[in-house]
From TrEMBL:
It comes from the Bacteria. This is Peptidase C39 family protein.
Length: 107
């Protein structure tokens, strides 16, 4: 490991993947982002969930443009990329339950 760099910490709290995904998108735009630093700036502990409003604030804090857009699966292919998608579980009737299955995933 390079001198002055520590090994990445394994955080598994709710929403941690969302912050990691946001940092990955930031890197695509040549913007440095650290999930732990973003969580600290948002005032979140590693065990706290990260909401959509938290992600929007974190993206704006990195200098990225971000907004929330709701769309169905049929329009997902038309969504501008890169994007983060909140995946919701479906009930037997085919309606969304409003519960995220595994947080936010990079699309």
């Amino acid at each position: 490991m390079a001198e002055g760099r520590s090994a990445p910490q394994a955080h598994g709290g709710p929403g941690w993947q969302a912050l990691q995904s946001l940092c990955l998108i930031a890197r695509l735009h040549q913007v440095a982002g650290d999930p732990a630093a973003l969580a600290h700036q948002l005032g979140l502990s590693p065990s706290e969930p990260v909401g959509v409003s938290d992600l929007l604030r974190a993206a704006q804090g990195l200098g990225l443009k971000a907004r929330k857009v709701s769309c169905g699966v049929e329009r997902l292919a038309l969504t501008p990329l890169p994007a983060l998608a909140l995946v919701r579980e479906r009930t037997a009737e085919g309606e969304g339950s409003g519960v995220a299955s595994h947080g936010v995933r990079a699309a």
